[in-house]
From TrEMBL:
This is S-formylglutathione hydrolase. It comes from Chromobacterium piscinae. GO terms for molecular function: S-formylglutathione hydrolase activity. InterPro entries: AB_hydrolase_fold, Esterase-like, S-formylglutathione_hydrol. Pfam families: Esterase (PF00756). The lineage of its organism: Bacteria, Pseudomonadati, Pseudomonadota, Betaproteobacteria, Neisseriales.
Length: 279
């Protein structure tokens, strides 16, 4: 891997909040990611949480808004936040907010003009972790989490590659994208018209068919305007029962889809992951 460049480095809770650029062979473009290294990183390799963000987001939303660094520093857990899609002038895009740059959906696209570069599943599950383990003080114990589109991505990665993670969680995930407008639009564009192929990227369908040995936690806000049409958490709960999966589904009255919701419960998610990362 070439072209690794640090572009920001800030002291936070005794640790380092950093931002990096690198050349991605998987995506064929320059990619940015953020890392929080707690103080314990000065003394050895640490377990880490991979966070996947949602539509229109970048690597900065979680690091700026979730307030996760304080407890991560206390627990000795590193945080890794990739971007949500390939970026750049030569990268395919769409004027809509829910397709193209900022909306990679953590799938491997099979349809033009997306096929060559929109391979976010391979990027977040293989290329980026390999780079991180080579260049940062991170050990082999990784958890995965995300919000909205990133919650979908985190669940799909956990179900498809359970050997890579110790636990998974999501805030407001798109649980059944094959039946949700956001998912159907993205899957049609990226994967094509064969809906049978979409099942490989639908957390509810995957969980019902394959199950998942990992502990899973999902939190949704009952005042989320997208809850019924786009998120469909009941489908994931039913799939967990069929797949005999260990899913904790928490519903919170009054909370919406925003990062205010994430910030309100991020400590609970970090402690959930810490029980498995630090075991």
């Amino acid at each position: 891997m070439t072209g690794l460049e640090k572009i920001a480095d800030n002291l936070a809770f005794g640790g380092r909040q950093q931002q990096w650029l690198h050349d991605s062979a998987t995506l064929g473009c320059r990619m940015r990611f953020s890392v929080f290294l707690p103080p314990a990183a000065e003394h050895g390799k640490l377990p880490w949480l991979l966070w996947l963000s949602g539509l229109t987001c970048s690597d900065e939303n979680f690091s700026h808004k979730a307030g996760a660094q304080r407890l991560a520093a206390e627990l000795g857990i590193a945080l890794v936040m990739p971007d949500t899609s390939p970026r750049g002038e030569g990268v395919a895009d769409d004027p809509a907010y829910d397709l193209g740059q900022g909306a990679g959906f953590y799938v491997n696209a099979e349809r033009e003009p997306w096929r060559g570069q929109y391979r976010m599943y391979d990027y977040v599950s293989q290329e980026l972790p390999a780079l991180l383990r080579r260049h940062f003080p991170l050990n082999g114990r990784c958890a995965i989490a995300g919000h909205s589109m990133g919650g979908h991505g985190a669940l799909v990665c956990a179900i498809r590659r359970p050997q890579d993670y110790v636990s998974a969680s999501a805030f407001s995930p798109i649980c059944q994208p094959t039946q949700a407008p956001w998912g159907r639009k993205a899957f049609s564009a990226y994967l094509g018209d064969d809906e049978a192929a979409w099942a490989e990227w639908d957390a509810s369908l995957l969980l019902a068919e394959r199950g998942c040995p990992l502990p899973l936690r999902v939190d949704v806000g009952l005042a989320d305007a997208f809850l019924a049409e786009q998120l469909r958490p009941d489908a994931l709960q039913q799939a967990a029962r069929r797949g005999d999966a260990r899913l904790e589904l928490h519903r919170h009255a009054g909370y919406d889809h925003s990062y205010y919701f994430v910030a309100s419960f991020i400590d609970e998610h970090l402690r959930f992951h810490a029980r498995h990362l630090l075991a």
